[in-house]
Structures
1.
Amino acid sequence: MLNLYTFLKYGFICIWSMFVVAPFLWALSTSFKDFQSVTSGATYIPWLQFEPTLEGWRVLWKTPASGGVDIVEPYFNSIIVTCSASLISILLGTLAAYALSRFTFKAGFIKNNDITFFFISQRIMPPVVLSIPFFIMLGYLGLLDSLVGLIMVYIVLLMPIAVWIMVDFFNKVPREIDETALIDGCNPYQAFFKVVLPNSIPGMIVAGMFCLIFGWTDFFFAFILTFTEVQLLPVRIVALNSSITPWWSLSASALISVAPLIVVAFIVERFLSKGNLSGALK
Amino acid sequence: MNFRHKHIFLLPGLLVLIGILIFPILFTIRLSLSSWDSFYPGLDFIGLENYVRLFTEDQRFWESFFRLSFLSLTTVFLQYVLGFSLALMVWRDLAFKRFFRVLFLIPMMTTPVIMTVIWKTVFHESLGPVNDFLSLFEITPLWLSDDTLAKVTVIIVETWQWTPFMFLLLLAGLLSLPEEAFLAASIDGAGPVRKFIYVTFPLMAPISIGAIIIRLIEASKIMDTIYVLTSGGPGTATETSSFYIFIKGLREFQMGYSAALSFTYLVIMIVSLTIIAKVLVRVMIKQD
C-alpha cells in the first residue's frame, strides 16, 4: 500500500516535471537551429540530428536594419517600466496598507474593509474594459507610446497586489511595536519609518516579487498603448510571431526574456520554506 | 492618533488609483451610450440602443461568454486538482523537496504570451514535437485548426502556465496549518487517506476557496494566450468575451458598442464571481 503510494507519487512528480521543463528544452534546442533544420521536421539533439548554429542568438543583438531583432532596447524599456511601476506601487501600497491596518476610517457607510476591497477589486477589471478609455485618455494627455503612460497604467495593475499582500502582512505585525515607539516619543511618521518599516521588509519583498511578476509578464496594455517608439519585450517577441516565423531567434529571445524572473522562483521558494510567505498570502 | 496622520498614510495611494481609474470607468459608461465608430468618432447620445442590440441581436457575444465560462471553469478546476496534488506531495517528506518546489513554481514566472509563442511551435502541425511523437502511432491531430482540439490546446497551455500559482497559494496554506490537528489524527490512528478527508481538506477549505476565486478572476481575463495561440479561431471556436470585445473595439473600432459590451461583461463577471464564491463557501465549509 505504502510502496504503491510512493511509486505513484514519484511517478506523478516525474511526469509533471517533464511537462514543466519540456517547452524550455524544446526552445533551447530550437534556438540553435537554422532554417534548414527547422523546416525539415522536429529534431531534438544537436550534432546528432542537426548542425547547431549560433545565428538565432547573434541576431538578437543586431539592429533591425542589418536583419536583426534588437531586443536590447525593449529589454531596457521593460525593466524601466516594471521596476518604476513596482516601486511606486509598493511605496504607495505600503503606506495605504499601513493606514488600513492600524487606523479606522469611516465615511458614511464606507469602512476599512470597503476601502481594502476597493483596492483589491481592481484586479477583477478585465484589461480589455480599461483598454479603450486608457487609449483615449493617454492620447489626450499625449502619453500614448511613452514610458510614463505605461508606468501609469501598470500602477493600476500592481497597486492592488501590493495593498492586498501588505494589509495582511501588517495585520500580523504586532501593534505593540508601533505603540511602544509612540510612547517613546516618536511622532507617527518616525514610528512608521524607523520602527514599523524595518520590520516589514519581508512583506515588502514578497509584495515586490509579485509586482515584478505581474508587471514583467503583462502583454495586453503594452500591446495596445504603444506602437513604435517604446516597445516592451513581450510585444517585440510576439511581433516576431506574426511575420514568417524565424523559430530560432524567437526561441532564443523567449528564453532570454523569461530568464530574469526564474531567479524570483528561487526567492519565493526561500520565503515559502521559511514560513514567511504563508502569512503574506492568506 | 489624530485625524490628519492617518489620511496622510492612506490618501496618496487611494488618490493615485482613483485618479487614474475614475476617467476610464466613467468614460466607458458614457461611451456605451454613444454610437462612436470609425466613420463617426464622437460622443453623441443614442440612449440604450447599444444595450438593446447586445441583448437581442448579438449571439456571438453570448456564445463567447459561455465559451469563456467553459474554458475558465475547466482550467481552474484542473489547476486546483493538479496544484493541490503537487502541493501535498512536496509538502512533507520528499527527496529534493526544495528543488521540486522551485521547479513547479517556474511556469508562473514566465511571460504567458512568450511561452504561448513557444507552445505554438510545440503544437505545430507538421514541424512540432508533439505531432512528431504522435506520428509514431500514426496520428497527427490538427491541434490549432480543429474546433475541439484548439480548446484542448488552450486548456493545456493555461494549465501549464497557471497551475504553479494555485500550487503556490495552496502550499503556502498547507505550510501554515497547525501541527496539533495532525498529531491528534495520528494518535487516533488515522491513515493518510482519512487524514486528508477529515483533517487536511477541511482545514484547507478557506484557503482553497480563496485560491479558486483568485484564479477564476485571473482566468476570466484570458486573452493573451488566445490572441497568440489561435486568434480566437478556427472561426470563433476559441473566442472569449475579452477577445470579442477587443475585436469589436480595437479592430473594428466600434468604440461605443464595445464599451456597452465591456460594461455588461464587467457586471456579469462581478455578479457571477460573487455567486460562485457563495456557492463554494457553502459546498466546501458545510461538509464537516
2.
Amino acid sequence: MKNHMRIAAAFLPVVLLATGCRNPFDPSCDVEFTALIAGNMNSVFIYSYQIPGSGTINFDPWKVTAQFLVRNKVAAMITSILITYTDLDGNEVTAYKATGGRSFRTTFRLAPMTSNSPASQGEGTETTISLYVVDKKVLDELLSPSYPTNKFMFANIVFRGEDENGYDVRLEGRIAIYYYQ
Amino acid sequence: MKARRLVPAALAVLAVSGCQNPFDPQADLRLILWEANGGLVAQLTQALASTTEKQNTWLQTVKMTIGNYSSVPVTLTSYTVVYRQVGAQTGAYPQPAGSPIPSLGGASGRRFPFLVHATALTSNFAQFSSTGFWVRIITSELLDYIGNNTSTINGGIDCEVEVFGSDHNGHNVSVSGTLHVEIF
C-alpha cells in the first residue's frame, strides 16, 4: 500500500506537467494580456491636422494603454518592453528596424488577486501600463512619400519580466496604426 | 464492464451530435449590434470622401458589440474586412455587382491586429455577456477609393468583417457580420 502511495506521489507532478496544469505548490503567475486601447478605441489613428508644420508635437492622442489581468495570487514584474513596427506586408519599418525594434527597460508590477471573492475581484486584478507607441520616428516613416499609400502600420508589443515565484513572463499583443493624410 | 464501454460511447455521441464537451467547453460568441455614424449603417459622401471626411473621426467610428453566451472568456486578436461593392465596378478593371474590390485586398480583404478581452457569463441571471469594441473599417484607402470612384454611389459598399481570437480553454473562435456603407 505504501509503495502505491509513493508511486502515486512521484507520478502526480509528471501528470501535472504533461497536462499543462500549474504546480499547486509552486504556481506561476496566471496573467492575461487583455487589451490594447488608444483614446478609448482599439486602434491608433493619426490625422494630418494633428501634426503641426513646426514646433512641439503632442503625442498624447496616440498614447496606448495596455491592460493586464492577474487571476491568481502570484504577482509579476515587467522589466522590459520591445516594440517592432511592420507595414501591411509584414516588412519591418521605421528606423528601429536597424536595431531589431524599439527596446527599453522598465519596472512595473502587475498586482495579484488578494482574495478569492469573485464579488470583489471579478475575473482578476487589473493593471494598466501606458506607452507612447507613436513617436517621432514612427511619424517620420508614415509621413514619408515612399511609405505605402494605404498608410497602415502595425505595432507588435512584447512585455517581458519575471513573476514572484521566478517564472519568466512574456506577454505579446498587436495594434494597428492608421494615418489619414 | 458495461460502464467502461459507456464512457467512450457517450463521448463519441457528444462529438458526433455537435454538443460541447462539458469538461472542455468552448466560448459561444454572436454578433449583437453594429453602430456607426448612420445608426446601423455608415454613411459617407462620395465627393467629400478623400478630402474632408478623411479628417472626421465621427464618420469613421464603427462599433461592434458581441455577446458571449458561455462562461468561457475570449481574447480577440485580429479581424479581417472584405470590401464588396454592391453595384458594378467601373474603370480600368470592371467587376460585376457584388464583387470584392481588388484595390482593397480583393477576396482576402485586409487583416488588422487588435487586442480585446470578451467577457464571459459569471452567473445564470443574464442571457449573455456583452463586449463592445471599435473596428477601423473605414480606412484611409477605403475613403480614397470612394473619393475616386463615382460608381460607389450605386448601392454603396458592404464590409464583411470576421473577428478572430481564442478562448481561455484554447479553442479558436470567430464571429462575423457585415456592415453596410451607404454612399451619397
3.
Amino acid sequence: MTQERIRHLLGIDDINRETAERLLDLAESFLEVSRRPVRKVPALRGKTIINVFFEASTRTRTSFELAGKRLSADVVNIGGSSSSTSKGETLRDTVNTLDAMHADVIVIRHAASGAAHYVARYARAGVVNAGDGMHEHPTQALLDSFTIRQRKGHDFRGMKVAICGDIAHSRVARSNALLLRMLGADVALAGPRTLLPTAVDSMGCRVYDRLEPALDGADVVMMLRIQRERLGAPLLPALREYARFFGLNAARLKLAKPDAIVMHPGPMNRGVEISEEIADGSHSVILNQVEAGVAVRMAVLYLAASEPGAPTDG
Amino acid sequence: MRTLLDPESVARGLRRMAGEIVERHAGASDLVLVAIRRGGIAVAGALHHWLGQLEPHSPPLGSLDITLYRDDASTALPNPRIGPSQIPCSLDGRHVILVDDVLYTGRTVRAAIDALMDYGRPRLIELAVLVDRNGRELPIQANYALKTETLNSDERIDVFENSGGIYAVVQPKSSPTIPPGALRPEVP
C-alpha cells in the first residue's frame, strides 16, 4: 500500500499508470478546495516553492502560483528577464542558489528540451517540469486527462481522441499522446505533413496529414496553438491557408461524435486553429481545463513537497 | 480481540444520544451533522437516522476529510487518500455536531475544527463519538460519548460496520489494520 513519493515530475515518460491515476484521483479532492468560501488548506505551511519561468507564460505560471498558495506554501516567482540569467548566470548556478535558499520544490519552464531533467540532477529540491522546449509538459497532459475524466468518465479504453495542429513542435501534444496512450485511449494525431515529427510512428498513435479522418467519430478534439513564431518559415507558409485546411469550425466538428468535447491548451489564436463559434460554443471545455489546472498542480506540488514519515492515529 | 460495543448496544446508545442532542438544542432546526472521514461516516449515518425518527426535519448531513489539516500533513503520508469533503449548507450560525468513531489523541478533532472554520462561522461546535478513550494529547473533550474506556497504550479500538450494524472491538496495536474498502469481518 505504501508507495514511493513523487519527488520529481519531469515528464509523462517517467511515471507509470498507477502514479498518473493517483495524481488524477488526488486532484479531485483539490478541486473541491478551489470551490469553497475559503480557498486554502494548511497542508504545505512552511514549505517554499520557487517558480522559475525562463519562457513567457500567463496561465501555467499563475496556475502553479495559485496551486502553491492554496496549499499555504510560500511561493516565489522568478522570470527570465528579471533573473540573474540575463547577467550570464548558468542554469546550474541558478539551481545551486535556489537550493541554498532551502526551496522544497522548484517548478521550471525553459526553452531547452531536457532542462528540467538537468535541474533535477543537481537540485536537492523536488523538480516539476512546467514545459521544456519541444519535449514535455506533464502537468498540462494531466489536467487535460482530468478534464476528460470529468466529462467522459474514468475509463479511457476505446475513447477516441484527436490531437490536431503543430505536433512536431508541441510538448503538449507529446505529453498528451503519452499519457492518453498509457490510460488506454485511441489517439489520432493530425497536422500538415511539415509539422508532424519524424519519429511519429513510434508514439503508437494513428497519424494523418488531414484533419477530417482524425475527427471522424472522435470523443475528444484537442486543438494545438499554432506558434506564430514559426510562421513564414518553409514549414508553415500562411495563417489563412492553415486556418482553411486545419482550423476547427462547426462544419468539421460535425464529423466528431455529437457529444464530443473540444479542448485547447491556450493561448488561442481565434480564427486560426479554432473558430470563434467553437471556442465559445457548447462543446468547448477550455475554461474547465483552466480550473482543472490549479487542482492538478495542487496534487503534484503536494506530493512533491511532502516528506515521507509514519502516520499517527488520532 | 474483545468486543467493546456490540451492534445492539450501539444502536440503543445512538438512539439515546440523538434524544440528548435534540433536547440540548431544542429541536434539530439549527443542527448540522458533520462526519469526520472515514471513521465517522457510519456513526454519523446512524445518528442521522435516529434524529430523523425524533424530529420531523432531520438535520443536513455532511462529511469532512481532514488529511490536509493534520498537524503532520506535510510529513506523514506517503500515499495520501484524500476523500471529498461535502458540506451541504452554509455553516454560518449553525450548531455543528462533529461525529467520529473514537476520540483518542484529539489531533483529528483539532484538525476537523480548523477545517470547519474554513466553511463558515458556526454558532457552536460539539463533538459526538462512539468511544472516548484515554491518551489525549490536546485539551479536547467529547460532548457525547457512548462509552468511556481506559486502555493500555499498546491497544487499539477498531470500529466496523456489517449487516448487523456498527460495533467496536479492542485489539493489540500491532495487529494488521484493515485497508479502506475491504470487507469488514462478520463478527461478533
4.
Amino acid sequence: MEMTLQLTIDCSDPQRMVTFWAEALGYVPEPPPGGHATWRAYWAAMGVPEAELPTCAGDVPESIIDPAGRGPRVWFQQVPEPKVAKNRWHFDLKVGGGRDVPLDVRTQRVKTEVERLVKAGAAVLRIKDEPDMGLYAAAMHDPEGNEFDVV
Amino acid sequence: MSSLIRHVTIDAADPFVLASFWAQALDGSLADDDFPGDPAAVVTTTAATLLFVRVDDRKAVKNRVHLDLQPQDRMRDEEVERLLSLGATLQGDHRRPDGTGWVTLYDPEGNEFCVERSAAELANG
C-alpha cells in the first residue's frame, strides 16, 4: 500500500511560521499549483467555499516543501485558538550526525545550529549536556512556542 | 546549513501499542528491537520516521501538530474504513456531497489525524 503524508501545524501567523521553518529545514515555500497566482485562487478553483477560508488565507504560501524531496510537506494552518499545553508531537532536527560521530564534534554542530536557529527566531528552552550518556542536545521553541529538539 | 527532520516524536501512554497502529496505518515498519511494554518505539515509513515515547501526562487538548494522509492506491472512503477497523475512531466527517472533503479520525490515544482524497480522486477534480 502506498501513502503520502503531510504534517499540519496549527498556528496564528502562517507567514511567520513559513519563514522560520523554511530557514530551519532548508525547505522552500510551496508555490500554488496549476499556474494559479495564489493558493486562495487555487482553492477557489477547486470549489472550496469562500465561507470556509479565513481572511487572507492562501494569499501567500502557507506550506513548505523539501526541494530535495526527502522530507514531508508541512502545512501551517491558521487557527483562532492559542497554544495552551505542551505539544504531544514535535520535531527532532538532526545535525549531529548520529552516535558514530564523536561527542565533541556533535556538540559543536548542535551549538552552531542552535545559534543559527536563534537568529532565525527560535528560543532555547534548555540544553541537555550529558557527556556520561554521550548526549548533547537542545530543546527549543519555534516563534509560536512549539517545542522541538536539535540533536 | 540546515537541519534534517530526524523524527517526528509523539508522546504516548503505551508507545508500542500506538506505534503498532501507526505502522499499519502508514504501511511502515516497527523497529526489530521494539517490544510490548517498551518505553519507546520507532516506526519507519517512506516519508518520515515516527518516534513514540512514553510520558506520564495524558492528552488534554487538541494537538497543534497532526498528520494528513493521502492514499495513493485506494480511495479515501476505503482508507477510512480500513483505519476504523485498525482501531481509529471518527472525530468529524467533512466529506461533501460532490465528493470533495476529508475525514478527521482519532488514533487509539486520541491524536487527531485527517484522511484526504486519494491521488486518483484529486486528479479527477
